[in-house]
Amino acid sequence: MIFMSRDSYKRSVVKSLTWRVIALLLTIIILYLTTGDAVFSGTVGILINVLKTIVYFIHERIWELVNWGREE
User: Fold this and answer.
1) Phi, psi at 44, each rounded to 5°
2) Is the pLDDT of residue 4 over 90?
3) From CA 48, how far away is CA 24, in angstroms rounded?
């Protein structure tokens, strides 16, 4: 027997936010290890992650217009 459950909206939001924090920290660490400049790494890391979040949102809204793969 397969039991399928769905995440609550709140759980999905928290998972998304924690993933963005992990991605942000990873980006900053990689930048710092390659440049040695903490201010540069933090600034660029934050800018990259804000941009990625905005682009992902636009990507999701565009996919809302696509009917391919939807079932009724």
Assistant:
1) -65, -40
2) no
3) 8
pTM of the model: 0.73
CA angle 27, 28, 31 (to 5 degrees): 85
User: In this structure, which amino acid lies at residue 25?
Assistant: L
Beta carbons of 49 and 23 less than 8 angstroms apart: yes
Q: Is the pLDDT of residue 2 over 80?
A: no
Q: Which amino acid is at 48?
A: I
Decide if 30 contacts 42 (C-beta within 8 A).
Answer: no
Query: Which of 1, 49, 2 has its CA nearest to residue 23?
Result: 49
